[in-house]
Amino acid sequence: MEDNFQSAYQEEEDRLNQALTEIDTLLEKLNQTPVYTGHDYTEQVLEANRDQKRKDLAKLRQEPYFGRLDFQGNDEKQRKALYIGKIGVDREQVSDRPLVIDWRAPVASLFYSFTGGTEPASYEAPEGLIEGLVYLKRNVVIRKQILERVADTYNRESDAPVVSDEFLVYRLGENKDNRLRDIVSTIQEEQDKIIRAAKNTALIIQGVAGSGKTTVALHRLAFLLYQYKDQVSAEKMIIFAPNRMFLDYISDVLPELGVGNIAQSTFPDWAANVLGLELPEQDATETMNRWFETPGGMPVITEETPGRFKGSTVLMGIIESSIKLLESSSVPEGDFIPWEGAVLRRSMILRWHNEEYAPYPPAKRKERVMARIHRWIEMELKKSPSAAAMKDRKKKGAAREKAYSAKWPKYDPLTIYKQIFRAAKVPEDWPVDPPENIPAAVLKETAKDLKKGIIREEDLPPLLYIYYLLNGNEGGTRFDHVVIDEAQDFSPFQIAVLDLYVRGHSFTILGDLSQGIHAYKGVHAWEEMQTLFAPENTAYHALTRSYRSTMEIIDFANGILSSGVESSLLAVPVFRSGDPVRMIAYGEIVGEREAEGNARLSTIQSALKSLSGREYRTVAVLTRSLREATELYAELEQHFEDIHLIDGSMTQYQGGLSVLPVYLSKGLEFDAVILADADQDHYGATAWDAKLMYVGCTRALHELWLLHNGEMPSYVQTAAESDSEGN
Ligand SMILES: Nc1ncnc2c1ncn2[C@@H]1O[C@H](COP(=O)(O)OP(=O)(O)OP(=O)(O)O)[C@@H](O)[C@H]1O
C-alpha cells in the first residue's frame, strides 16, 4: 500500500515537473511576441487573446490541475490519463491530448458524475454519447507548484472499486477564511447535474443548509459561459443575493474560476435603478426589526399578509386590468382644436392611437400620438394667411397642445400604484370602490405607507410591472441568465417580473424552505414559482447532502427541523465527525460561577475565548436580535481584538470574530458558532422560531455551542436527545 502510494506520488511529481516545463515554454513563446499597440482591430483582438493566455498561464503555473481521470473510450486502443484543471491548456501540437483539460469540458464531466463500480461509464460529447471504462480517479493538491497530496478516490484495480469520500472529507475539514471558495476539485454528482443543466430552463433547486447552493450557482455561471460562449456573455448575467455583505462574501469564487464582469445585486438595488427611484436606506432594517425583534412574535401569516399578497400573481392581475382600463380611456374626449377653424377629429386621433401605434406600450403610444399631433399643428400653421396670424396661432396652438397632453392619464408607475391602492385621486372612469380582491387590511396599510412616501421592498415588483406595462423594456435589458440565491425569500411576483427581463426563462433559482424566515413575503412551496413557467421550461432538483457541517451538527439541526418545523427536508451528512454540540447554561462553564447578573456575559466571553484560542479563522456569536448583538458587541469589543459587529448596513464581510443577529447570518458560515440565548425567553415555540434556530445552528462548520438561560425550547431539547442517541 505504502509502495503504491510512493509510486503514485513519484509519478505525479514527474508529471507536474513536465507540465510546469511545458507551461514555461508556452509562456516564453508568448512573451517573445511583441505586444501590439496599433489600431488594427483584428490585431487588437489577437493581442487581447494573447494577453488573456499569458494571464491564464501565469495563474496555471501555480496550480496547473487538481484531478486526474484515466479513461479508455470503447473506440480507443489504450487508456489515457486526463489532467483536469480550472483552465484548459492545449499543447503545441493540436493533435496531442491537451496538457490540462478545462473542468467544464464534456469529458471532464466524468470526473464528477462517475460514481464507481466496474460498469462502463459515459459522457455526452458534441459528437454523441461516448462510452468507455474509468480506471482511475485521482485528486492531487498542488500549491505554489508543490505537490502536496495525492489521493485516489477510485481505482479499478483495487479490491473495492467505489468512489470514496476521503478526499472530500479532508477538504471539508479545512478551516474557512472570510470568503466562499470554489469547489472544482470536489464537485459532487448531484451538484454537477445542476451545474451542467441546459441553459434555457428555469431551474428550481431546493437544497438543505450547506448543500452548496450558492457555490453550485456560481459554478453554473462559469459553465454556461464556457458551454454557450457564442450565445451568452458575462455582462448579461446577474446574481441576486439578499444583501451587499453577502455579495462581498461570495465575490472571490467567480474570479477564481476565471470569470469576471458578472453583475451582482440585491433585488431592491436593481429594481430601484430600473425605476429611477431612490429608496430610503433604512427601509429593510426597519422591516427586519419589525419581524425579528420579538421572540415568538411573528404574527400568523396568511395570503392577506401584505408581503404575501403584494408578492402574489393576484396583484399582477389587478395591475394588468387597471392599466387596460387606463389605456382604453386614455385619448381625451372631444376633437383637438388648436385655434378656431382648425379641427383634428378625435376619430383620427383614435385611429392613430388604436391602430397605427397599437404595437407600442401606452406611454410610448401617447408619446407617438402627441408627436403626430405636433406635426399636424405645424402643417396647419403653414396654411396661415399672414405672418402675424401664424405667430398668434403658434402661441395658441402650443398652449392647447400642452393642455391636451395634460388630459391624458399620468403614465407614472408610482402614481398608478397609488391610484390602485387609493392613495391618490383615481381617474374619472375608474370604479370609485377599490378593487374588491385587494384585502381590506392590505389596502389600508399600503395606502397609509404610500401617503407617507414609504415604499417597501414588497412594493417594488408591482411598481416594476407597472413600469414594464407602460414602457415595455425601455432600456433593452435582457439577461442571458439570472441566478437567484435565497430564493425562498422571493415572491412569485418578483420572479414573474424578472422573467420579463430574461431571455429563454434562463434562471437558476436556489433556496431552502426550511430557512424561510422571511415567510411573510417569500414562498411557502416551490410550486408557487414552478407554476409561473410552462412545464417544458422548468425543472426541479433537490440537494439533500450537506457539506458544511460535521455529522453531529447536522444531526442536531435535523432534530430541530423535524420536531420544531415538522419538516421532512432533512439533510444527509457527509461522514465527517467532530465534537458533540455543546449546550451550556449561563454560569455553568467550570471556573466561571459568577454573580447572577454577569453570568450571561461571562459565559459568552469564556466560550468565545475558548473557541477563538483554537485554530479557527472565523467564529461567530449569534444573538436573537440586532439590539442584543449591538449591546453584546459593545461589551466584547473591550476584551477581544479583531471582533466585528454585523448589522444590515454592512457591505463587507471581514471574517475573524463576528457578532450578529441570527437572521443576518443566513448564507454565511463560520468555523465555530456560539448561539447565545438559545432559551425560551428568546425563541418561542413556533415553527418560525425553530427555523431561525435552524439557520443559526447550520452556520457552523466544526463546532456549535448553544448558551442558554434556563429552559430551552422543546425542539432543541428533542434535538439534543436524538443527537445524543445518535452518538
Ligand atoms: N462539493 C463540495 N466540495 C467541497 N466543499 C463543498 C462542496 N459543496 C459545498 N461545499 C462547501 O459547503 C459549504 C456550504 O456551501 P454553500 O454556502 O454554497 O451552501 P448553501 O446550500 O448555499 O448553504 P446555506 O443555504 O446554508 O447558506 C461551503 O463551505 C462550500 O465550500
TrEMBL record:
GO terms for biological process: recombinational repair. The keyword Coiled coil applies. Keywords: ATP-binding, Coiled coil, Helicase, Hydrolase, Nucleotide-binding. GO terms for molecular function: 3'-5' DNA helicase activity; ATP binding; DNA binding; hydrolase activity. It comes from the Bacteria. InterPro entries: DNA_helicase_UvrD/REP, P-loop_NTPase, UvrD-like_ATP-bd, UvrD-like_helicase_C. The keyword ATP-binding applies. GO terms for cellular component: cytosol. This is DNA helicase UvrD. It comes from Paenibacillus odorifer.
